[in-house]
Design a protein that fits this description.
This protein has helices at about 85-95, 100-105, and strands at about 25-30, 35-40, 45, 50-55, 60-65, 65-70, 75-80, 85, 110-115. The protein has about 120 residues and is α+β, with helices and mostly antiparallel strands. The strands form three sheets. It has a five-stranded mixed barrel. Strands 2-6 form a two-stranded antiparallel sheet. A hairpin with a 5-residue loop joins β3 and β4 (about 50-55).
């Protein structure tokens, strides 16, 4: 089992994945397939509704936490099945440029993806 100890648990870093004011109303744990660490912000799709893998063309959900797919006890993570998300962050995480068609089809699933500038630093 992976070591879940976090020395700075009381600090946060804003990564601007979630944007807008539309709450992520449907967040469910999903089994993520692949190899290694699948990063927060990865777009997911599934053919059977049980196992999800990275997919930038058939967007069904967005991973909200990093998942280690090599750890049999840690291959599940929360995924949002709706909400507003930052296209810039998703493209950075996935290393691809999203197509207009994929973004439009995701809208039909209540997943809204659009470019967003990062929040200004606090003084």
């Amino acid at each position: 089992m992976a070591n879940l100890f976090k020395p700075n648990v009381d600090t946060t870093v804003v990564d601007n994945l979630i944007s807008g004011t539309l709450a992520q109303a449907k967040v469910l744990p999903v089994k993520v397939t692949g190899s290694g660490i699948v990063k927060r912000g990865t777009l997911l799709a599934s053919t059977d509704g049980v196992e999800f893998s990275a997919n930038a063309t058939n967007i069904q959900a967005i991973l909200l936490l990093d998942v280690d797919t090599d750890d049999p006890d840690g291959d599940e993570g929360p995924a949002a099945f709706g909400g507003e998300f930052n296209q810039n962050k998703i493209e950075e995480v996935m290393g691809v440029t999203l197509t207009d068609v994929a973004i439009h089809q995701a809208r039909g699933r209540q997943i809204f993806i659009a470019p967003m500038n990062p929040a200004p630093e606090a003084f």
